[in-house]
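This section describes the prediction task in plain terms. A model, or a person checking by hand, is given the sequence of a single protein chain and must write out its three-dimensional structure as a string of tokens. No templates, partner chains or ligands are provided. The sample shown here is typical of the held-out split.
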Amino acid sequence: MDSIQPERIFFFDIDNCLYAPDLNIARMMKQRIYAYGRKIGLDEASVVKTCGSYYRNYGLSVRGLVMHHQIDPVEFDEQVDGSLPLEDIIKPDVELRAMLESIKTRRWAFTNAGNNHARRVLKCLGIADLFEGITYCDYSEPDFPCKPEREAYDRAMCEASVDDAQLCYFADDSAKNVEAALNLGWTAVLVSPAIRTMGADKTHLQIQSIHQLPTVLPQLFN
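The expected answer:
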């Protein structure tokens, strides 16, 4: 009998979750966002504050830039996400692949990044073929949803053809995103090197690295 339980599904965040934050891709991303902000006319003194406020208020800086500065989201994607040297930084992760292969659930990527960026990261890690699909942010879609907004999680469930929140598992490096998933009835795991005590917190599971996932959800693994 096949050990995979197709009724359960595990949604995996990608950036700073499937690879370690110390690769500093987030820092390089910020630098490119600020450079793009300067390009469209934000002055040096305000670009960091403005882009930061857009991130806090809208979930992603690009949403605020589209809303308040009418930028071309396709151009943004090309010049910011698309310019990251991912292939030079992210290498295939054999341990991660083995862990993902052993999980007894469906696998789905769930990211606030764009489609091209998400696929590049998964390919670099050597795990792109292990996911049924990707729920991503389409920057060209007017007021597109993103985590931690409820609509983003609803979209992920819809795209993955699952309608029971209790069948959904989730790993993310953002505490806000994990909290939102918990509020929907998902089982959620916070992934962060800053965590000092692994295992069960008051409301969620937590690990320092995605490779440790079997230690907190052993029932899902062979």
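For orientation: The mean pLDDT is 93.
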